[in-house]
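Structure first, sequence second, as always.
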């Protein structure tokens, strides 16, 4: 994909989140296809969809249907926020030194997500940030974890309070440590693997059903 295409997608996603009516994504996501959008104009007025159509017409693919499906699932979960809330989200997520970075980061993360379930989790995370349940730093940390961890390991965090990290199987524990969900502590009161409690709370209490 060219830099121009990447910039276009980045800007259009930010515009979609902050300015578009996302309630129209209440239709069955499974029924959305590239052909239906090109032929019937379904959701065509969402800026991100219009940009994707423009790219597809030039013959450049962005994971085609899978990317579109993940994008719609992400936006559908984000749609629970009020329009006023969504307008502030992009502003609040932006770093003053890198004003165009938010859309670019989100596009890159969504493109790498292996399943639609992860796209839904990312949309829920955006809603948590919009409702001020998590901070900007927590949003980006959770997004990183969603991208990197297998879905089964994310789901297992639902019951983290009842699980001793020291006895979690080696492979899963290694993955948790690699994304910051846990760490190894040696001090006067504790020795061994410990949960990063705040991140675990976000997953266990808000994201994993």
């Amino acid at each position: 994909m060219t830099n121009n295409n990447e910039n276009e997608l980045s800007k259009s996603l930010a515009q979609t989140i902050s300015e578009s009516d996302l309630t129209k994504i209440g239709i069955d996501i499974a029924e959305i296809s590239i052909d239906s959008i090109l032929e019937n104009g379904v959701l065509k007025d969402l800026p991100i969809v219009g940009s994707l159509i423009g790219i597809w017409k030039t013959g450049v693919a962005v994971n085609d249907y899978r990317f579109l499906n993940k994008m719609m699932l992400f936006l559908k979960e984000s749609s629970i926020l009020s329009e006023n809330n969504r307008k502030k989200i992009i502003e609040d997520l932006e770093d003053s030194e890198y004003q165009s970075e938010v859309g670019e980061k989100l596009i890159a993360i969504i493109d790498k997500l292996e399943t639609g379930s992860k796209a839904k989790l990312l949309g829920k995370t955006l809603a948590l940030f919009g409702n001020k349940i998590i901070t900007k730093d927590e949003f980006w940390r959770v997004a990183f974890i969603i991208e990197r961890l297998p879905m089964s390991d994310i789901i297992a965090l639902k019951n983290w309070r009842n699980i001793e990290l020291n006895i979690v199987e080696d492979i899963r524990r290694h993955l948790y440590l690699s994304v910051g969900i846990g760490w190894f502590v040696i001090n006067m009161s504790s020795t061994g693997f410990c949960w990063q409690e705040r991140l675990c709370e976000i997953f266990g209490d808000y994201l994993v059903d």
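Margin note: The chain has a mean pLDDT of 83.
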